[in-house]
Amino acid sequence: MSNLVNHPMSQSGKAPVQAAPAQLWRSLFNQGLVDNDSPPAMKLSSPWYIIGAQMIGGWIAALFLLAFLLTSMASIDNIEQSILAIGILITLGCLTYYRVGNHNQEFILQMVFAFSIAGQLMLLWGIHDTLKQTDDDIIALMYAVVFALHWWLIPHKTNQFIAAIAMVPCLLAILVIQQLTQLVLPLLIVSLMLVWSQRYYWPKCYQRMRMLGYALGLNLLFANFALSDMGLWIDLPQVLITFDSRFSHYLAVIMVLLSALWLIHNIFKQLSSHLIAPTNTTQLRQVKIISILSAILISLLSIPMAGISTALLMLLIGFFYNELKLFALAIGALVSFIGLYYYSLHISLFDKSLWLMASGVMLLLIRWALAVSVGKTISNQEQRHDIQ
């Protein structure tokens, strides 16, 4: 590195001449900064517009091939069994490529992804036509098995997310068919907490667990949307209307509150581990009490406003596990549920404005209490620093 500083061009005020990668690596090796005398192989990445063109080209090529395949199948008499067989063949081919193929070519990867989605749709269509004389729970179970295999065997992130977000409703549909609708919301909450809390214990399945966690969160938000007044206005399928059970709703609010309190406890436990002075610990305990009371208040508000406490829980999960996308999704869901409840109120605009003012005053009081507690903590730290 000193050769670059003492270069004649750098002394003349011009930009320093960059050494060749091999020479730079050799100088680092001579100084003992690296162990290997040869530089590692550099993987060149394509520009974003080249990658975008390859992705679009892969989907167009896959659609043309699928159109040709479906046109060729139009003359077959027993089209149901043919669709099932072709769906199985396409699915097996895509699974084979994902397991043993080269994933560096974006064009082929996107084309296989499109074929995988089409193969799953054909497979589901064939299963429905083959088992349409049987019970619906068997069909839902077969759908869940298909999506579970794709979620588990395919290493492609987007395909795992699509399989996970489709697998969860299939499993919930089995509960609805068996008239166990009161277990839908509680099981979603328990599954959400288990997946996000256990994903670090399964490092080989980290990506799969993460995609499943996002899928559970989206399904939980959609179930709460079905419970809201806005969801009742929309002509939703009967399987979603069955979520509307008061006992299930109250039980879900309690479970969300307990989960939120557990997360708050762990968050402040980590914060307190970095504090030494007992005064700071006392102030942190006051902030913790305010946070617990706020969580209880929001849970009570979630009884008339479905989804508020669920969005709060996902907000805490995103903060605790450093998931920025989940954090942003929870903020959007929180604002959406509040807005949906506001527009569904059958009261005058004056009464709505009073409710908004009361909510604003309550939030300002919570913010003031937190600011006072945090300000005392910072002030105590500064006084201790000045004394030292």
Automatic annotation (TrEMBL):
Domain annotation DUF4401: ranges: 47-370
A family per Pfam: DUF4401
Name recorded for this polypeptide: DUF4401 domain-containing protein
UniProt entry keywords in alphabetical sequence: Membrane, Transmembrane, Transmembrane helix
Source organism superkingdom: Bacteria
Transmembrane regions: 48-70, 82-100, 107-126, 138-154, 209-227, 247-268, 289-320, 326-343, 355-375
Keyword flag Hydrolase: no
Biological classification of the source: Bacteria, Pseudomonadati, Pseudomonadota, Gammaproteobacteria, Alteromonadales
